[in-house]
Design a protein that fits this description.
By secondary structure, the chain is α+β, with helices and mostly antiparallel strands. Among the domains are: about 125-140 and about 445-465, no CATH class; about 145-445, Endonuclease/exonuclease/phosphatase (Deoxyribonuclease I, Chain A); about 470-580, Immunoglobulins (Immunoglobulin-like, Sandwich), CATH 2.60.40; about 700-790, Rho GTPase activation protein (Phosphatidylinositol 3-kinase, Chain A, Orthogonal Bundle), CATH 1.10.555. The protein contains 25 helices and 22 strands. The strands form four sheets. Strands 1, 2, 3, 4, 5, 6, 12 and 13 form an eight-stranded mixed sheet that branches. Strands 7-8-9-10-11 form a five-stranded mixed sheet. Strands 15-22-21-17-19 form a five-stranded mixed sheet, with helices on one face. GO terms for molecular function: inositol-1,4,5-trisphosphate 5-phosphatase activity; phosphatidylinositol-4,5-bisphosphate 5-phosphatase activity. This is phosphoinositide 5-phosphatase. InterPro entries: Endo/exonu/phosph_ase_sf (IPR036691), Ig-like_fold (IPR013783), IP5 (IPR046985), IPPc (IPR000300), OCRL-1_2_ASH (IPR048869), OCRL1/INPP5B_INPP5c (IPR037793), Rho_GTPase_activation_prot (IPR008936), RhoGAP_dom (IPR000198). Belongs to the inositol 1,4,5-trisphosphate 5-phosphatase type II family. It is found in: Cytoplasmic vesicle, Phagosome membrane; Early endosome membrane.
C-alpha cells in the first residue's frame, strides 16, 4: 500500500485523488470538488472531469413554459419505486433530465464528507471524514425549508374527489411533500400478492392535487400491500437530494404479512439526513400493547443499507430528523361513545386528549420516546360513515378516535400547523396534514475548503508508523440455555488505547462464508475509533427457523470465534459459547412423534439420536410405537378448535411475543390441560411450528410433483398418500381442522382463499425461494383438500 505521508501542502494522497476522480467519472453529473483541481498535476495521464460546483440559488424558478403533456404516473414492479424520477404537473421528464433532478445514493455537493465512506477509500480518508463530521458546524449553516406531511387511510376506496383541498391547503408551495396512505387496497389479491391497480389511481390523484405554484419531482414511491409512501420535492431542490433508500416491514401474522406494518424512506437533503416512516399499526381499542409491539418491531427491523457495504445498516433512530406519520390506530379509552361525542360537540379536545391512548403510552415512555406531536385542535378523524361527516352508524358504532397522527423527532423543527380536512369524504377516515419548518444544514463552500485543509494538515503530523491497538472488555462470552426465537445479547467494549485512530472489522475465518455463525451477530461489525474513544458492540444470539433444526439435532453447537481485525494492526480473538435448549419448534415431525414426554424432559442424547434417525428406522419393531401426530401440534390445534373456531380474523392478526414465549415454554417443558396466551398468539405459534419444521409436512422430495399436478384433485391426493405415515397424518389432521374453521366462516371471516394462501406456504415449503407462479400452484394444490368436503 502506498505510503500515506505527504508534504503538508498536499491534502490528499495521490491514490485517494485517483479514487475520487473515478467517482467523478462514474457520476459525470455530480459536481466536482474545486479543491481537487489543485492536485491534477500529481496525476499521471489525462482524466475527464466533472463541471464546476453548482451554487445554490433559492430565488431560482422553473421554466414558466413547462411541458403541456399529461403526466403518466408510473412505477416499476419493484416494491420500492420511483428511481425514474418524474416532474409533476408539467408532463413527463425525459430520462436525461431525470438524472439532473435527483440522484439516488449518489454524491452531491451537499454531502462531501459522506463521499469518503466509499469502499475504495482507506483509513486516511475515514479519518478525514470523521474530523469533517466532528467539525460540521464550522462549514454548514441552517436554512429553513417547509415540509408538507400528510396521512390518509382511504379504506380501500378509489379516489372520488380532488385532493386539492388537502394537498394545496398552504398559501405558499411546500419544498417537500411526504404523503402516507393506508388501506390502499383491501382485496385479498393485494394482501397476498402485493399487487394493486389502485396505486396508479391514487398517484394520479396526488399528482393533480399538489400545489399549482411549483413544479415537483417524484423522488420515490414505496408500497407494502396497502401502505404507500410518496416523496415529492420541488424541482429546484432535486439536485440536493441524495442517498435515497427505502425499506418495508410487515408486522402482520408471523411478522410477515403486510396488512399491518410500515414503509420508510431515508435520504440526505443538503447535509442533513432524514427518515420518513408511514405505518399502519394493529387495530381495536383493547390492542394498545400490540400497537406498542408493532412500533418496536418497525424500529428494530427497518434497516437501511449504506453506500459502503462494509458499514452496518442504519436504523430509523440513527437519523438526525425522523418524521413519523400514519394510521397509528391508538384510540380513546375509558369513555363511552356518547360522552366522547358530547366532548367533541363542545370542542373540549383537551379533556378528550387526556384519554388518548397514544398520549398515555408516550407519557409512560412505552413508545415514541423522544418524539413530539403538535397540539390537537381538530376533531377525531375516525370513524365516519363513508361519503359523509356523520359518525359511524353501523352496528359496532365505533368510538371516535384520533387514529391518524403525525409526529417528529430532531432539532430545528417548528410545526406551522396540524389539522384534519373534513371536506374529503371518500373514506371512513379524514386525512390529516402538518406543515413543518425544518432547519436543514447547508454547506458553505469556502468554509468547507478551509476546514478540510486544516484537517489534512493536522493528519500529516501523525506518525504513519504508529501501530494501532485496542483493549477488549472481555474475551469470552457464554450464552446459557438459549431458547427458540429468544433474543439474547451481551456487550463487548472496544477501547482505543493506542497513539493513533484505528479502523476495526470482524473478518471471516478461513473457508467460512461470513465473519460469524448465522445465529450470531455483532453490531456494529466494523467501525472507526478516534484515539481514546470506545465503542460498545452488541453480541446477539438469536435462533430462528433456519438455525434451530441443526442445533436441536445436535449437528451444530453454539460455538464460534470472532476475529476482530485492526487495519495496520493485529487481530483479536473473541470466544462465543453457549447451550441451546431443544424445542419442538425446529424439530422434525418423526422425532416429535417418538417423544411421549416434553422435549426438554428427555435426555439430550436421546433427542439428538432420534433427530438423526431416519423414518424407516423409527418404524422398525425395536422402536416404541410412535404417536400418530406430534402431541405439541395436537395441543395447539385442539386449543384453537375449542376456543377459537369463531374467532374473528384468526391467522390474520399477530399474537404477542411475550405470550408466544409462554406457549413455547409450555409445549417444551410440560403437558398442560390448556395453553397460555390469547387465541391469536396460539394461532401464530401453530404457524411458527409448521414453518420451523426441519422437513415440511409435504416433504421436499414431493414438492416438485405437487407443482406439476396441482390442477388435478386425484393426483394431489395420490401424492399425499405417498408421504411418510407421520407426515400424512399431520397433513390430514391440519386440513381437517381448516375445514372445520370454514364451517364457521360467518363468524371468523375466513375463506378457502385465505387459508390456502397462508397454509400452502407452510405445508408445501420450497427447498429454494418460491416465485409467484409456485406460490399460486401450491395454493391451488391445497385448495383441493379444503373444498373436498365443503360441497
Amino acid at each position: 500500500m502506498e505510503s500515506l505521508r505527504k508534504p503538508a501542502d498536499i491534502f490528499v494522497a495521490k491514490k485517494n485523488v485517483e479514487n475520487m476522480q473515478d467517482v467523478c467519472e462514474q457520476y459525470p453529473d455530480s459536481p466536482k470538488f474545486d479543491w481537487l483541481s489543485k492536485y491534477q498535476k500529481h496525476i499521471k495521464g489525462t482524466r475527464s472531469s466533472a463541471g464546476k460546483i453548482i451554487k445554490r440559488d433559492r430565488s431560482h424558478t422553473t421554466d414558466s413554459k413547462g411541458h403541456q403533456e399529461d403526466k403518466q404516473a408510473h412505477s416499476s414492479t419493484e416494491k420500492a419505486r420511483g428511481d425514474g424520477f418524474q416532474e409533476n404537473n408539467q408532463g413527463k421528464v425525459k430520462s436525461e433530465e431525470r438524472n439532473e433532478l435527483v440522484r439516488s445514493s449518489r454524491h452531491t455537493v451537499s454531502n462531501k464528507a459522506q463521499m469518503l465512506t466509499m469502499p475504495q477509500f482507506g483509513l486516511r480518508d475515514n479519518l478525514i471524514k470523521c474530523e469533517l463530521l466532528k467539525n460540521e458546524d464550522t462549514y454548514t449553516y441552517i436554512e429553513n425549508f417547509n415540509f408538507f406531511l400528510g396521512t390518509y387511510n382511504v379504506n380501500g376506496q378509489t379516489p372520488k374527489e380532488s385532493l386539492y383541498s388537502w394537498l394545496s391547503s398552504t398559501p405558499e408551495p411546500p419544498d417537500i411533500y411526504c404523503l402516507g396512505f393506508q388501506e390502499l387496497d383491501l382485496s385479498k389479491e393485494a394482501f397476498f400478492f402485493n399487487d394493486t391497480p389502485k396505486e396508479q389511481e391514487w398517484m394520479k390523484a396526488v399528482s393533480e392535487g399538489l400545489h399549482p405554484d411549483a413544479k415537483y419531482a417524484l423522488v420515490k414511491l414505496v408500497r407494502l400491500v396497502g401502505i404507500m409512501l410518496l416523496f415529492y420535492v420541488k424541482k429546484e431542490h432535486a439536485e440536493h437530494i441524495s442517498e435515497v433508500e427505502t425499506e418495508t416491514v410487515g408486522t402482520g401474522i408471523m411478522g410477515r404479512m403486510g396488512n399491518k406494518g410500515a414503509v420508510a424512506v431515508r435520504f440526505r437533503f443538503h447535509n442533513s439526513d432524514i427518515c420518513v416512516v408511514n405505518s399502519h399499526l394493529a387495530a381495536h381499542v383493547e390492542e394498545y400493547e400490540r400497537r406498542n409491539q408493532d412500533y418496536k418491531d418497525i424500529c428494530s427491523r427497518i434497516l437501511f443499507r449504506q453506500q459502503d457495504p462494509t458499514l452496518p445498516p442504519l436504523t430509523i433512530m440513527k437519523h438526525s430528523i425522523v418524521l413519523w406519520l400514519g394510521d397509528l390506530n391508538y384510540r380513546i379509552s375509558d369513555l363511552e361513545v356518547d360522552h366522547v361525542k358530547g366532548l367533541i360537540l363542545k370542542k373540549d379536545f383537551e379533556t378528550l386528549y387526556n384519554h388518548d391512548q397514544l398520549k398515555r403510552q408516550m407519557d409512560e415512555e412505552a413508545v415514541f420516546v423522544g418524539f413530539l406531536e403538535g397540539e390537537i385542535e381538530f376533531q377525531p378523524t375516525y370513524k365516519y360513515d363513508t361519503g359523509s361527516d356523520q359518525w359511524d352508524t353501523s352496528e359496532k358504532c365505533r368510538v371516535p378516535a384520533w387514529c391518524d397522527r403525525i409526529l417528529w423527532r430532531g432539532k430545528n423543527i417548528t410545526q406551522l400547523y396540524y389539522k384534519s380536512h373534513m371536506s374529503l369524504r371518500t373514506s371512513d377516515h379524514k386525512p390529516v396534514s402538518s406543515v413543518m419548518q425544518i432547519g436543514i444544514k447547508v454547506v458553505n463552500e469556502e468554509a468547507y475548503k478551509k476546514t478540510l485543509e486544516e484537517i489534512v494538515r493536522s493528519l500529516d503530523k501523525l506518525e504513519n508508523e504508529c501501530i494501532p491497538s485496542v483493549t477488549l472488555s472481555q474475551r469470552e462470552f457464554h450464552f446459557n440455555d438459549v431458547k427458540f426465537m429468544q433474543h439474547r445479547a451481551e456487550t463487548l467494549t472496544v477501547h482505543n488505547d493506542g497513539q493513533v485512530p484505528c479502523q476495526f472489522k470482524f473478518i471471516q475465518k478461513l473457508d467460512e462464508p461470513a465473519y460469524c455463525k448465522p445465529w450470531l451477530t455483532a453490531n456494529p461489525s466494523n467501525g472507526f475509533l478516534a484515539q481514546g474513544d470506545s465503542v460498545v458492540i452488541d453480541l446477539e444470539v438469536f435462533v430462528n427457523r433456519s438455525t434451530a433444526p441443526e442445533l436441536s439435532s445436535g449437528q451444530q453447537q453454539l460455538e464460534d470465534i470472532l476475529v476482530l481485525h485492526l487495519e495496520r494492526g493485529k487481530d483479536y480473538f473473541v470466544s462465543i459459547t453457549g447451550s441451546y435448549l431443544p424445542s419442538c419448534f425446529g424439530s422434525s415431525i418423526h422425532t416429535l412423534c417418538q417423544l411421549r414426554e416434553p422435549i426438554q424432559e428427555m435426555p439430550l442424547e436421546t433427542v439428538h439420536k432420534l433427530s438423526l434417525t431416519s423414518p424407516s428406522e423409527i418404524s422398525s419393531p425395536d422402536m416404541e410405537k410412535a404417536l400418530d401426530i406430534p402431541k405439541e401440534l395436537w395441543m395447539m390445534v385442539d386449543h384453537l378448535y375449542r376456543n377459537a373456531s369463531k374467532q374473528e380474523d384468526l391467522f390474520q392478526l399477530p399474537g404477542l411475543h411475550s405470550e408466544f414465549e409462554e406457549i413455547r415454554d409450555c409445549l417444551d417443558t410440560c403437558t398442560p390441560d390448556t395453553l397460555p396466551g390469547g387465541n391469536h398468539s396460539v394461532a401464530e405459534a401453530l404457524l411458527l411450528f409448521l414453518d420451523a419444521l426441519s422437513e415440511p409436512v409435504v416433504t421436499f422430495l414431493q414438492y416438485q410433483q405437487c407443482l406439476e399436478c396441482c390442477s388435478s384433485s386425484g393426483q394431489c391426493k395420490k401424492i399425499i398418500s405417498m408421504l411418510p405415515q407421520c407426515h400424512k397424518n399431520v397433513f390430514n389432521y391440519v386440513t381437517a381442522f381448516l375445514r372445520e374453521l370454514l364451517k364457521n366462516s360467518a363468524h371468523n371471516r375466513l375463506d378457502v382463499n385465505i387459508l390456502a394462501t397462508i397454509f400452502a406456504a407452510l405445508l408445501l415449503r420450497s427447498p429454494t425461494k418460491q416465485d409467484l407462479m409456485e406460490k399460486r400452484k401450491t395454493k391451488e394444490f391445497l385448495q383441493h383438500f379444503l373444498v373436498q368436503e365443503s360441497n
